[in-house]
Structures are given as C-alpha cells and as structure tokens.
Amino acid sequence: MTNTETEISYLAIGDSYTIGEDVPLESSFPYQLTEELKARGLKLTKPDIIAKTGWTTSELQDGIRSAELNRKYTMVTLLIGVNNQYRGEPKEKYRNEFKELLQTAITFANGNETHVFVVSIPDWGLTPFGMESGRDIRFVSSDIDAFNAINKEESLAEGVSYTDITVASRLVVSDKELIASDGLHPSPKMYLDWALKLAPVVMEKFK
C-alpha cells in the first residue's frame, strides 16, 4: 500500500536536462515527475534542483559542494554525463566521478540506495543541433551508449534504480515536437515521457 500521508522531499541533480534548458521550469522533468507522482497519490514538496547547463560530472560535484546542502531527502534523481561525452573526456574519469556522485546521491537520500533514481543520457546527436554540428552522429550515438553502459553498470552495482530514456530520445528524428526551440534540448513533451517512465518506478519503491 502506498504511503500517501508522509510528505516526500525530492532533490534532482544533473545538468541542462535536469534544469530544463529552454523550457519553463515547471516543464522540466523533475517538476513533471512531481506532478505525476502527486496524481498517483504521493505527497511531494517542490523539488530542489542542483543543475546547470554545460556541467560535467566534476562541475556537478563542485556545484553540490557550493550549494552547501545540509539536509537529507526522501528521493534523489541523478542524470549526468552528456557534457563529458560532448567534450571528449575519458570514460574512466567519468566512471570514477559518476561513482562518487552516486555515493553523494545515496548520502542525500539518507543512505537509502533504493530511493535514488538514475536516468540515462539522451542522444543529442540526432537533434537538429546535432545534425548540423559537423559531428559524426553515428559515433555520437555509439559513444553515448558507451557512457550509458558505465552509468548503468555502476548504478545497478549499488542497487540503484536505472531508467533508460535514451532509446525514446532518438524519436526526435520523426517527431520534432520532442525538441525545444533551441534545436537541442528536450521539449516539455519529451520531459513528460521521462516522467511517465520514472513515475511507476518511484511508486514501486514507495509502496
């Protein structure tokens, strides 16, 4: 039975995909996820967000330290790595820093790894921006898959939930409504898809 009486606090950490670049904050996936969970009977506070466009894993670590949050949360989402991939940073560096961020997320979740939810990196290469970037989009897709293989492996090793939104993100090729006006970031429609994928996973953990 779902506990609908206890108010759930939610921290979302990441980059542009968490803060919702080029869309209203209320259309970002943390806010849409909150609304979906409320509709399913959970009581949530407004999400706290530590995220900034362009952040890599190391920059997110710096951002978390700068935020000086001295509290715990009922649930935490983590989505990070696209800028590591975009800048061509070493995968081993990503693995090490992602593992550290995963531990940070678990700490924020009061040590409960089952209340941490990792989201895979979407494929920016198939967006209009990606198509016009001069990059080899086949390489971009395979490289993102490689980064996602790392974050999935490390998440599952820690008993953390993992939600794959990458395959669905590639539907931008046939559905331009999934892309924001900047031609790169997700639209509210795509963020809603993420929220709909995450909501039942979260609900399962809070029964």
UniProtKB/TrEMBL annotation:
Pfam families found in the cross-reference section: Lipase_GDSL_2
- CDD domains with a match to the protein in the record: SGNH_hydrolase_like_1
Please provide, alphabetically and separated by semicolons, the GO molecular function terms listed in this UniProt record. Answer: hydrolase activity, acting on ester bonds
Entries under InterPro entries matching the protein: SGNH_hydro (IPR013830), SGNH_hydro_sf (IPR036514)
Positions of the SGNH hydrolase-type esterase domain: 12-191
From what superkingdom does this record's organism come? Answer: Bacteria
Which protein are we looking at? Lysophospholipase
Query: Which source organism does the UniProt entry give?
Result: Pedobacter steynii
What does UniProt list as this organism's lineage?
Answer: Bacteria, Pseudomonadati, Bacteroidota, Sphingobacteriia, Sphingobacteriales
